[in-house]
Design a protein that fits this description.
The protein is mostly helical. Helices cover 55% and strands 0% of the residues.
């Protein structure tokens, strides 16, 4: 078999052309970093990462993604939780979308952020006003006498 370069090899169901693969590998070799190559070629990081994985030379280092939750964001977010401690995760997520355009965050990330700042996340149930009224208590007492 001929000496085939790894960027010419194509996995099944792969839609990235060999020319694009060659450009990514060459750019990564020239720049020295796969992440910089993705910025230079204006490609998705996952595509370049997959190409780098098939090549075997270039892979992203763990923790090389951009941090969405910077200090300004966490300070603002914790202040918002202090203002409204009964807010649900959905409400917090919508507030983030509204106040920080272009930032999407998962419920898990919200819980981790709150846990990191020693906030507890609990389910809240709203008790109706008539739950502890006198009529309900009388009916409950009658029921317990009838059953016991």
């Amino acid at each position: 078999m001929e000496d085939v370069k790894s960027y010419e090899l194509k996995k099944p169901y792969s839609f990235t052309k060999a020319e694009v693969r060659r450009r990514v590998i060459e750019c990564a070799l020239r720049v020295g970093d796969l992440k910089e190559a993705t910025k230079h070629l204006d490609m998705k990081i996952k595509t370049c990462r997959a190409i780098g994985a098939t090549n075997g030379e270039f892979t992203l280092k763990p923790g090389s993604y951009e941090v969405k939750l910077n200090d300004e964001f966490t300070k603002y977010f914790c202040g918002g939780v202090d203002d409204n401690p009964t807010a649900t995760l959905r409400q917090l997520k919508e507030r983030i979308k509204k106040d920080f355009a272009g930032t999407s965050i998962s419920n898990t990330s919200i819980v981790r952020l709150l846990d990191g700042h020693h906030y507890l996340v609990k389910k809240l149930t709203v008790q109706p006003a008539e739950r502890n009224s006198e009529t309900v208590m009388v009916k409950l007492a009658e029921y317990t006498e009838a059953v016991c």
